[in-house]
């Protein structure tokens, strides 16, 4: 039998959730987070780089400003050179600007800046599509997207939608639109990189097999690692056309491009995690030898 997202969530709601909670899932695991640390070389770098990657905040439904504040404090304690946001910052209808979220994100400190991309739940928050906590679709969703892009910029967060920036003489950060509700253009996101090291941020790892060109390192979110993982089985449900292939951790895209898929920080569907701790990803990147 194929395990669909609807079937999986219905099963949890119908009783399996209680068993998971009894085993330590639920709030205890859903709201406790950690920092995963990784050391890699990055071709094109001329000096070391400290990058913090935060993705899938899902502010709105199950996540409030208190959680975001804790994530921001932990990120600032890492003293990153650059902070990258991997999409799904929002998860609620945005009739009004998310002031508490913007205030917390405005506290992030990184000398090379804070840059991010939009994800599929952001598009629900814009009103691109409807849902139980998004309400009906909005005809003016594109205007709402533009308004929120400007609001994030006002809080010091640059949203990249098929574009990039040279944040250092030896480093280019590119970001793509969402795979499900945008038209991601990797070539446009990396145009202008030249010989610089490249970091590409794209929300959905299902883009990896279709990369039109190599990138130094790709950072993704979206999957939450499955959010609920079962011993000896893994994640019963991963929101990916490739099943477990891009569920979490280090993977590889087209052109042998290395990529990291974060388990994310927030919650989607149900406020439950099991054996899948939320994470801030901290990358200590160094110049490639030779």
Automatic annotation (TrEMBL):
Superkingdom of origin organism: Bacteria
Annotated Pfam families: Metallophos
Annotated keywords: Hydrolase, Metal-binding, Signal
InterPro entries: Calcineurin-like_PHP, Metallo-depent_PP-like, Metallophosphoesterase_sf, TAT_signal
Tagged with keyword Transmembrane: no
Alphabetical list of PROSITE patterns matching this protein: TAT
Calcineurin-like phosphoesterase domain residues: 50-225
Segment forming the signal sequence: 1-30
PANTHER family: PHOSPHODIESTERASE YAEI, TRANSMEMBRANE PROTEIN WITH METALLOPHOSPHOESTERASE DOMAIN-RELATED
Protein's name according to its UniProt entry: Metallophosphoesterase
């Amino acid at each position: 039998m194929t395990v669909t997202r609807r079937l999986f969530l219905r099963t949890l709601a119908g009783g399996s959730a209680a068993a998971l909670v009894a085993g330590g899932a639920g709030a205890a695991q859903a709201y406790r987070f950690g920092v995963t640390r990784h050391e890699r070389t990055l071709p094109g770098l001329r000096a070391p780089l400290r990058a913090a990657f935060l993705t899938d905040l899902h502010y709105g439904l199950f996540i409030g400003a208190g959680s975001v504040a804790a994530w921001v404090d932990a990120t600032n304690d890492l003293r990153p050179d650059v902070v990258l946001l991997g999409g799904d910052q929002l998860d609620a209808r945005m009739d009004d600007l998310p002031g508490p979220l913007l205030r917390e994100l405005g506290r992030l400190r990184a000398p090379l800046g804070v840059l991010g991309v939009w994800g599929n739940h952001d598009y629900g928050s814009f009103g691109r599509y409807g849902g139980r906590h998004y309400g009906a679709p909005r005809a003016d969703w594109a205007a709402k997207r533009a308004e929120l892009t400007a609001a994030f910029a006002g809080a010091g967060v640059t949203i990249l939608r098929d574009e990039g920036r040279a944040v250092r003489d030896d480093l280019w950060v590119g970001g793509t639109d969402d795979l499900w509700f945008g038209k991601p253009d990797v070539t446009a996101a990396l145009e202008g990189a030249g010989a610089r090291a490249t970091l590409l941020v794209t929300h959905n790892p299902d883009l990896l097999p279709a990369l039109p060109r190599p990138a130094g390192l790709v950072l993704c979110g979206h999957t939450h690692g499955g959010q609920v993982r079962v011993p000896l089985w893994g994640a019963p449900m991963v929101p990916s056309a490739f099943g477990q292939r891009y569920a979490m951790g280090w993977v590889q895209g087209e052109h042998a491009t290395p990529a990291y898929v974060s388990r994310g920080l927030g919650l989607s569907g149900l406020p439950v995690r099991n054996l899948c701790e939320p994470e801030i990803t901290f990358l200590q990147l160094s110049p490639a030898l030779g």
